[in-house]
Write a structure and sequence with these properties.
Blueprint (H helix, E strand, L loop, with lengths): L4 E5 L2 H4 L13 H13 L3 E5 L7 H14 L4 E4 L3 H4 L6 H18 L2 E6 L10 H18 L7 E4 L21 H14 L21 H18 L11 E7 L1
Length: about 250
């Protein structure tokens, strides 16, 4: 098998928020894919992850895509638009244009593109039906844009009804837990033609102690609203966790 150089760009979904390690770091599906890829190929691969939580889709493209391509990867994964969907006046066509731009640049650089849609948290969220409808429209629009591109690897998680259920989500109900990230990693590896570990599709369920009612709004919704009102982001002043190649053995 040829040497693999896999770089991931995106927001909290790709950074790995929700899949928390004991030392305080986050792991996430992209880290798991890199490990699964190395295990399956029986040789080390190079892996980088430039994703930063809280980013809208065009800042992802403008800030992460060219540095990622400058690394000369063989494979690049892209997901974005989830944070845009939480804004009341987001434009689906503008989000889809970002996907088109990433496709064009990967074509120009000869990089294999892996496109993902985020998992669907709307069943647990306030205003869930609104986000469900927006996510459905966005997924359909991206699918339409790439319908004549069978060469693009795709791992669409939004339609996965099992993944949208509470046991795959963290306490904030917006980010997947480790169980959810493993399921996404299994889907990405499958798209790459690699058989994932069978249990990654549905790890044993852990007890979920999630705040409810006023406690949930105070702990998670309130801080999110304050960031919107002040024009700040959870990703402000954060650096990507793997901006350069690391070797995964």
């Amino acid at each position: 098998m040829a040497s693999i150089r896999f770089v991931a760009i995106g927001d909290s979904f790709t950074e790995g928020v929700g899949d928390d390690l004991p030392d305080g770091r986050v792991r996430g599906w992209a880290d798991l894919v890199a490990q699964g890829w190395a295990d399956a190929s029986a040789q080390p691969i190079e892996y980088a992850n430039l994703a930063i939580r809280g980013k809208l889709v065009w800042p992802i493209v403008e800030q992460q895509l060219e540095p990622a391509l400058a690394l000369k990867p063989t494979h690049l994964s892209f997901n974005g638009g989830g944070n845009d969907m939480l804004r009341p006046r987001s434009s689906v066509s503008r989000i889809v244009d970002a996907f088109t731009h990433v496709m064009r640049r990967c074509d120009e650089e000869g990089v294999q593109l892996i496109l993902l849609s985020g998992a669907n948290p709307s069943g647990q969220l306030p205003l869930g039906p609104v986000f469900q409808r927006r996510g459905d429209i966005l997924t359909a629009a991206v699918s339409k844009r790439i319908e004549d591109r069978p060469d693009i690897m795709r791992a669409f998680n939004w339609p996965d009804r099992e993944l949208s259920t509470p046991p795959y989500w963290s306490q904030d109900r917006l980010h997947m837990n480790s169980r959810g990230h493993h399921r996404v990693a299994a889907r990405v590896l499958t798209a790459a033609g690699i058989e994932p570990p069978a249990d990654w599709w549905s790890l044993p369920q852990l007890p979920l102690i999630s705040p409810r009612g006023a406690a949930y709004y105070r702990e998670y919704v309130g801080p999110w609203v304050r960031r919107r009102l002040t024009g700040t982001s959870s990703g402000d002043n954060r650096e990507p966790k793997h901006p350069e190649w690391i070797t995964v053995g």
